[in-house]
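If you are new to this repository, start here. Below is one unmodified record pulled from the training split, so you can see the exact layout before writing a loader.
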Amino acid sequence: MANHPSKRTLVHEPMTVVTDLILSALAFYFALGLGRQHELTGMSVHLYFSYAFRALSLGALLGALTHGLGRNMSVAAGGILWRGTLLSLGAAAFFLLLATGYHALSVRSVGHLLWPIMLVLALYAIVVIRDDRFLWAVLFYATALLVMLSVMLHDFFSGGTEGSGIVVAGILVSFAAAIIQRSGLTLHRHFNHNDLYHVIQIVGLYYLYRGAMLLKDWPGA
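And here is the target side for that same chain:
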């Protein structure tokens, strides 16, 4: 039977909306915890991890709105909302790189790297404004995670901070989530690849949070 043209679904992809909202709420909670840790320690690594989690929280919230209400919006409004999601993920990657820098390098070295990283972020923003495929966000975010993974692995095997191994676990879980999302794996018609991605990503973010809480700034900072 054909759908009646006057009927409109209020919320599309409800499970995706729910899992996105849970992801957003937890990311914001983790951001608050890292913010409090920064107040106690004064370490930049905690501050920038807090910013990264805030950006992830915003991205997940905008993603929930896009999946839930995007089809009821005009093309222009839906496009703005979705690009906001992609830009939030780019900001999260930027802050993760800065947090990693303050953990592994001196303040002066991070200062030298700041402008090149900002330039890459600007290029990413230009790309996703012109081409809003989620693939670009995955690639940019994954690149930041790969940089962080290499630093944390080196730190872990050289007997560095206890939290580096936990961060490595969080990164690997996040990569697994991204692979599943890109595979299109669907467990149920009401639980698709995006929902599974969000659930696994929640686990990854928890490990990133627990590890970040234990990290410290570079000794000479």
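Two things worth knowing about this chain: The CA atoms of residues 66 and 105 lie 38 Å apart. The longest helix spans residues 75-104.
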